[in-house]
Design brief:
alpha/beta, 7-stranded mixed sheet, Ald_DH_CS_CYS, 20% strand, 16 helices, 488 residues, Aldehyde_DH_dom, globular, Aldehyde dehydrogenase domain-containing protein
């Protein structure tokens, strides 16, 4: 069950299947966002530690290594075993996630199940990665092989620490790569706990390595390392550009899942209560700390006032408080930096003329809690309608026609997700085909699944995670041609 004071066993780096101190001996604090107080000190890795982790990962990827010689089906069994151990330790992992990240405990439980299911999905892919025979010209037998990149670097964010770990580990391990991961400095505890399960499951040394630390030191060392052949990053556009620039040092492959300013279009043919509930879930999930959050809510003018009234009512009813308390739906923001940034955006919204319907203030005098916030009378040129806030702020924007809504929805440098709520099939298809976004949801929102590719258009990312496309991101394609005596 939930434990607001879980036993924290693992605070060191994990390299070559062993927990070790940082070479420098440095540590850094990870903070409980519900209180603003330190939970524990964690070993602070930097370039020297990343070098050691890459060395271990390279050794684990040698052709004669246990990992490389292992049958693909056996790799799948190891990944599945890891998921089984997660299920055994469900409440411990969820408690750590809730403590370190601040999300309500039941949301953390949901994330653990989602992470287990992701690993199980990719466990099933290991022996289904295969090439093709190619009918090439001339007397040749030509075929392709799908081969793992080798050592891959992975940098994950703080908003979904465990899920983002599973999204990265699952396809990389299924492909046969070895991993050097840097978790977010705000939320390293579940990644380190997962390392203990990696060892218990029986993964060979060096296959998975985790180096907590800061972006400019540990993160930069991962992106710049000459022996890392691919880097996967989830986070902000600003840092994503830095990762891509660093990866150019040896032209390593890059996949980036970045920010969003996602539009949700509500047509006037819908049930207002149902539409408002979809929008509410889409924007306030995970305290608004969600890259696909529906922070631009476009509502057709005929139902605009009724929608604003219902949206305000829903936001006011959202229960904010200690993530370990029963019935809590909404915990704190991740840290003081985000807390102040979000409150700053709210002040900007008011100054630029948006109408604050509810929220917009700190809850309590401890931790980083912000009331769910709803703005109406928002226009496209306002800062809160253009920039990613990454907090519990819903901006409700009025539109007249669907064509107008599509044009305005696309008028952004982002393109991660979009949604439409309508009873008209033509509207649904027109919007889905025209909107510039990697995921489009009709009469629902946040419908992310392990089986379906996920990623963004424009500055919302490069490449895809999840589904078959997710494993392709960790595979090279090799073409082999063999001369034969004759064509057949």
């Amino acid at each position: 069950m939930a434990n607001s004071n879980p036993d924290i066993k693992y605070t060191q780096l994990f390299i070559n299947n062993e927990f070790v101190d940082a070479v420098s001996g440095k540590v850094f604090p990870t903070v409980n966002p519900s209180t603003g107080k330190k939970i524990v000190d964690v070993a602070e890795g930097d370039k020297a530690d990343v070098d050691l982790a890459v060395q271990a990962a390279k050794a684990a990827f040698q052709r004669s290594s246990k990992w490389r010689q292992m049958d693909a089906s056996a790799r799948g069994k190891l990944i599945y075993k890891l998921a089984e151990l997660m299920e055994r330790d469900l409440h411990q992992i969820a408690s750590l996630e809730s403590l370190d990240n601040g999300k309500p405990y039941m949301s953390a439980v949901y994330d653990v199940y989602g992470s287990m299911n992701c690993l199980r999905y990719y466990a099933g892919w290991t022996d289904k990665v295969c090439g093709e025979t190619v009918p090439s010209d001339g007397p040749h037998l030509t075929y392709t092989r799908k081969e793992p990149f080798g050592v891959v670097g992975q940098i994950i964010p703080w908003n979904y620490p465990l899920l983002m770990l599973a999204w990265k580990w699952g396809p990389a391990l299924a492909a046969g790569c070895t991993i050097v991961m840097k978790p977010a400095e705000q939320t390293p505890l579940t990644a380190l706990y997962m390392c203990s399960l990696v060892k218990e499951a029986g993964f060979p040394p060096g296959v998975v390595n985790v180096v907590p630390g800061y972006g400019p030191t540990a993160g930069s060392a991962v992106t710049m390392h000459p022996d890392i052949r691919k880097v996967a990053f989830t986070g902000s556009v600003e840092v994503g550009k830095t990762v891509m620039a660093g990866a150019a040092s040896n032209l390593k492959k890059v996949s980036l899942e970045l920010g969003g300013k996602s539009p949700l279009v509500i047509c006037d043919d819908v049930d207002v209560n149902e539409a408002a509930q979809i929008a509410y879930t889409g924007v306030f999930e995970n305290m608004g700390q969600c890259c696909i959050a529906a922070t631009r809510t476009f509502v057709q003018e005929g139902i605009y006032d009724a929608f604003v009234q219902k949206a305000t009512e829903l936001a006011k009813g959202r229960k904010v408080g200690n993530p370990f308390s029963q019935g809590i739906q909404h915990g704190p923001q991740i840290d003081d930096t985000q807390f102040k940034k979000i409150l700053g955006y709210i002040e900007t919204g008011k100054k630029e003329g948006a109408k604050l319907e509810t929220g917009g203030v700190q809850v309590g005098d401890e931790g980083y809690f912000i009331e769910p916030t709803v703005f109406s009378n928002v226009t496209d040129e306002m800062t809160i309608a253009k920039e990613e806030i990454f907090g519990p702020v819903q901006s409700i924007i009025k539109f007249k026609t669907l064509e107008e809504a599509i044009e305005r929805a696309n008028a952004t440098s982002f393109g991660l997700a979009a949604g439409i709520v309508t009873k008209n099939l033509n509207n649904a298809l027109t919007f889905s085909n025209a909107v510039e976004a990697g995921s489009v949801w009709v009469n629902t929102y946040l419908a992310v699944s392990n089986q379906a590719p996920f990623g963004g258009y424009k500055q919302s990312g490069v490449g895809r995670e999840m589904g078959k496309e997710g494993i392709e991101e960790y595979l090279e394609t090799k073409t082999v041609s063999i001369k034969l005596p004759s064509k057949v």
